[in-house]
Amino acid sequence: MARIFITGSSDGIGQAAAKILADQGHSVVLHARNADRASSTERAVPNAEAKLAEAANASGNGTFDAIIHNAGIGYGATSSQEITADGILAVFAVNNACATATMAVTGRCGTRQGHTPTEIASRMM
């Protein structure tokens, strides 16, 4: 089974992925933006290996076979926010910074030959 680090796993898609992967027997390391969200995630995914309130702590947790970059922000489908040029740049900056910072602190994905970091996103906005 794989060892998987999931950013943004405190709710939504990230939490659902964490539950499914942990239930399948994978070793899942959770991530949330703060301690309160990390605690609620730990309750939702009790069989997770560990929880991190900050992605920077991932570097002390060994290597991962997979990293799922799920942390980020966006304009929701039901959002009443007006989409502006500044807003688009802010969303883009946060979402790209999340993935870049995670890769930097985790030393990329694993150290074994054949591992290729892959970014998947449903949308950038």
From TrEMBL:
<dbReference type="InterPro" id="IPR002347">
    <property type="entry name" value="SDR_fam"/>
</dbReference>
<dbReference type="Pfam" id="PF00106">
    <property type="entry name" value="adh_short"/>
</dbReference>
<dbReference type="InterPro" id="IPR036291">
    <property type="entry name" value="NAD(P)-bd_dom_sf"/>
</dbReference>
<keyword id="KW-0560">Oxidoreductase</keyword>
<protein>
    <recommendedName>
        <fullName>Oxidoreductase</fullName>
    </recommendedName>
</protein>
<comment type="similarity">
    <text>Belongs to the short-chain dehydrogenases/reductases (SDR) family.</text>
</comment>
<dbReference type="GO" id="GO:0016491">
    <property type="term" value="F:oxidoreductase activity"/>
</dbReference>
